[in-house]
Amino acid sequence: MRLSGTTLHNLGFAAALGLLVLLAWQGKRSQEVLLDANAAVTESLEVINLAQGMFSVLQDIESGSRGYVLTADAAYLAPYDSGRAELVRLRGELGRTLARRDRAAWLAALDAGIARRVEIASANIERRDRLGLQRAADVMAQAGGKEAMDALRAQLAELETDERARLAAESARVDSVLERGRFEVVAGSGVIALLMLWFLLAMNRALHRQARLADAARAGEARQSALLRAVPDDLYEVHADGRVDVLSRGAAARSDPDAGLCAALTQRIARQPDHTLLTFDWSDAQGRDFEVRIARADDGDSLAMVRDVSEAVQARRRLRDQQAFLRSVVDADENLIFVRDAGGRVLLCNEAFSALFDLRPGQVEGQRAEDIAGGDGIAPLLEGDTALLRELPELRRNQLAVTDVRGRERWLQLLKRPLTLSDGQRLVLAVAVDVSARRQVERMKSEFISTVSHELRTPLTAIRGGLSILTGDHAGEIPEPLRPLIAIAYKNSERLVRLINDILDAEKLESGRLVMHLQVMALRPLVAQAIEQIAGYAREFDVRLAFAPGDDADVEIDSDRFAQIMANLLSNAIKHSPPGERVDVVLAVREAHAEVTVADYGAGIPQAFRSRVFERFAQADSSDVRTRGGTGLGLAITRSLVEQLGGEIGFLTETDQGTRFFVRLPLATRRATTTTVSDERARVLIVDSDTTAAAQLAALLDADGYASVVADSAAQARRVLAGTTVHALTLNLALADEDGLGFLHALRSQPAHRHLPVLALGVEPASTGRDAVIGGAVGLVDWLPKPLETGRVVEAVRACLHGRTGPARVLHVEDDPDLRTLVGTLLAGEPLQLHGAGSLAEARGELAQRHHDLVILDLMLPDGDGSELLAELAAASPPTLAIIFSALDTGSGSSAIAHDSNVVLRRLVKSRHSGATLATVIADYLRNWPTRPFPQGDLPR
Question: Where are the transmembrane segments (predicted)?
Answer without folding.
Answer: 6-25, 183-203
